[in-house]
Amino acid sequence: MSALPRVSVVLLLVLVAGAIVVPWISPHDYFTPDWDATDLPPTFAGWHLLGTDDLGRDLLVRLAWSCRISLLVALAASLISLTIGVAWGAVAGYRGGRVDAFMMRTVDVLYSVPFTPLVVVLTVLFGRDLVLLFVAIGAVSWLDVARMVRAQTQGLAQREFVIAAEVAGVHPAAILWRHIAPNLAGVVIVWLTLTIPTVILTEAFLSYLGLGAQSPLTSLGVMLADGAAQMRSRPLLLLCPALVLIALVYCCNRIGDVLRARHGN
Amino acid sequence: MSCGHAMATESTALLCARGYSLRRADGMPVLQELSFHLGRGEILGVVGESGSGKTQLLLSLLGLAMRGACSGGSCRFDGVELAGAGEPVYRSQRGKRIAMLFQDPLLSWNPCLTIRTQLTEVLHAHCGLRGRAADARAAEALAAVGLAQPQRLLRQYPHELSGGMRQRAMLAMAVLAEPDLLLADEPTTALDATTQLAILDLLARLRRERGMSILLVTHDLGVVARVADRVMVMRSGQIVETGEVGTMLRQPAGGYARALLAAAQQLERREFPQ
Amino acid sequence: MWRFLLSRLLSAVPTLLAIVTLAFILLRAAPGGPFDSEKELLPAVRERIERSYHLDEPLPAQYLRYMGQLSRGDLGPSFQYPDKRVNELIAQGFPVDLAIGGFALLLACAIGIPLGAWAAWRGGGADRLAGGLALLGISVPVYITAPLLILLFAVTLQWLPAGGWGEGAARNLVLPVLAMALPYIAYVTRIVQSGVQATLQQPFMRTARAKGLGTGALLFRHALRPALVPLVAFLGPAAAGAITGSIVIESTFGLPGIGRFFVEGAFNRDYTLVMGVTILYGLLIVVANLLADLVNALLDPRVRLQQ
Ligand SMILES: Nc1ncnc2c1ncn2[C@@H]1O[C@H](COP(=O)(O)OP(=O)(O)O)[C@@H](O)[C@H]1O
Ligand SMILES: [Mg+2]
């Protein structure tokens, strides 16, 4: 069994802790413009540790808020797709037969729908709402988890303890909930660690295009787009959110890789 | 170390092991202090229960034992020291001087390549043959192991052949570059009784016609009785007994060989009705 | 073989129909219409425009009219670019995306396949190094690499232009192709690496070694081929995605591709333009998956082409 990648775990914890703590202890907030402190380089004066943007807003605080938004969207979207996917996959895998065939055929068809364009169109058409954004992402990304859970459930349904419960006349719903669901934890955790970075990237992508978080609220994608626009004069505005996003996604992917190797697939 | 101090046969032996041993990467011994010899044109049967190290013995002679394993002692093959040798030494022997025949005739073929590709690459690597000439030699070799329509066979993929055909073709491939030593790892275990006999007869013919030496691993004493000259019994990585096949099978000295023989006799009667 | 091709293409028709219908419903269900933003339009003028595009008809009639046009290969007039047909717009923009996506995929294979195979073959440090680099490549999205590449090569070093199509001049292609290729290089490396690692464990590799083959034959003839099967399965949909144009690449480098039509069209409720790009995308996915299945049947003779 391979050990968890220590550097990635620590870095991820630092990022999460920073995202939570920095806005509390900093004297600045993420939205109030300060016209006397625009475009500052990093300085201890006034505690602008990473400087300010063109509206005089503190870069570090905005970065922390971006992390909060990214993580929040990722968690919420993952939970939504997790709920749909686990329910779908577990029912299909456990019931089998025609129900299974129909449910999985649906998944196959949905697979052929291009994911990113669909999310783009959804957000363009139905308004640039952050809540809607993660509902949309969650609603279209449950397919993988449904497949994995189905395969796992099919295996579990053959196991002695499930058969014993069936023989004892336990209701199928109770079997699913009490006997099957707890055994899905492994696959689900692996899937979560690999999906959260994907969702973070999708959210940043949409925000980069101006379809996600709206001003004054910020997110890593918004900061990247702003930074890219000013990169010639202030490369820091691009580099900071870029590094944070890369670190966040890399750490999650790294941990997910190790967990997946551990679960042997 | 010289091999010539014991019997006369040893001085002319093709393969001669003295205190040959193999350790896993973690230091666990797999083979311990093996001493045996194999003469030119001789078939030496190696029997023993599973896990006794027969496969690892054959693989280690080609430098293909499990990852990180290291061999010690001495094992000379026609003047070349194989124990503890480096990759270049093994590379110079593989296929050309020492060939190997594996147990599983399906998994041992690359499923994505035609029989032709897998045969002719041996000719290219060791005999410098390619194109038409290589094809002709490959077809000849297939015919020699009793396969009909060799031209058609060359175009096929391994999964399109039956188990017996695959093992015959595998044998043809192993001896394509006319090696001096054939390492056969349970070549008949996965086959039905008739095909088993055919493969054994082919091995006997290779020895007779080409003077090839064969190290024949099996857990089936019937196989040994049919083709081997001498037999060596292994257990937990050590040699328990060695002897002439006739003597051993009639009056096994050690208790272990006797037990093996007893267990094998019923099988033998069933599989090789006289 | 021909029967397989034909039946696969025919079976794609319902999928495409479903995608077209879904897109139609989604677009029409969305609030707003194509001529909403032009506020100064007089109601009468607006009504006349809408009538000329048949937007005044009931939805089922519009749907049937659209499908009728579609069956003749006509994607209809664009609302946003009044004097252009959608066919023309796509014909103008698609070569740009085809060039960039195609070169990016070629580059990804040219680097990723040897790198992944080499890493798996060497094992140990090389394996970890390539694995780490590939993971990093997957974690760095295009909207970070594209501006950074511009910052480095166009702004600081001034070796290459920061953007523009330049009629497809090589100088203009380098940065967008590179930006698009980086994540694909990472994916290809990972897939080939784990594939070769898996084949190296197979018994037939031991046979090949015992035959005395050299490293080249072992790695490229025996180990790589089975490992390419999952790669091709990945490349099918990936290719469709790459050549329909990356919105980010197009907007960052100012390229006249069709990716931006998609977003702009959705913003402006340019129904026909969005539908046209969607159909192209669907078609490309079908064709790419078909090609992937064909290539895989060539790579692995045990794969039977399923109808
Ligand atoms: N890949 C491996 N890694 C570690 N130990 C192995 C490996 N393969 C075989 N062994 C060990 O080596 C010993 C000999 O195995 P083997 O030669 O396959 O036995 P046989 O062929 O006689 O059945 C066994 O104890 C087995 O546990
Ligand atoms: Mg064995």
Biggest interface in this structure?
A-C, 35 and 39 residues
Largest sheet of chain B: 6 strands, mixed
- Average of per-residue pLDDT values of chain C: 85
The helix/strand order of chain C is: HHHHHHHHHHHH
Task: For this entry, give a set of tags.
heterotrimer; A: 265 residues; mainly alpha; MetI-like fold; 11 helices; elongated; B: 274 residues; alpha/beta; 6-stranded mixed sheet; 4-stranded antiparallel sheet; 10 strands; 41% helix; 23% strand; disordered N terminus; binds adenosine-5'-diphosphate; binds magnesium ion
Could you explain how this protein is built, in words?
The complex is a heterotrimer of chains A (265), B (274) and C (307). Chain A has helices spanning 6-25, 59-95, 97-111, 115-125, 130-140, 143-157, 160-167, 172-180, 185-208, 220-229, 235-262. With 265 residues, chain A is mainly α. Chain A has one domain: MetI-like fold (Orthogonal Bundle), CATH 1.10.3720. The longest helix of chain A is centred in the first third of the chain and has 37 residues, at 59-95. The radius of gyration of chain A is 22 Å and the shape is elongated. The mean pLDDT of chain A is 82. In chain B, 41% of the residues lie in helices and 23% in strands. In chain B, the strands form two sheets. Chain B has a six-stranded mixed β-sheet, sandwiched between helices. A four-stranded antiparallel β-sheet of chain B has the order 2-1-4-5, with helices on one face. Mean pLDDT of chain B is 85; it is low at 1-8. Chain C is globular, with a radius of gyration of 24 Å. Chains A and C meet through α4, α9, α10 and α11 of A and α1, α5, α6, α10 and α11 of C. The structure holds adenosine-5'-diphosphate and magnesium ion. The site of magnesium ion has 2 residues of chain B, from α2.
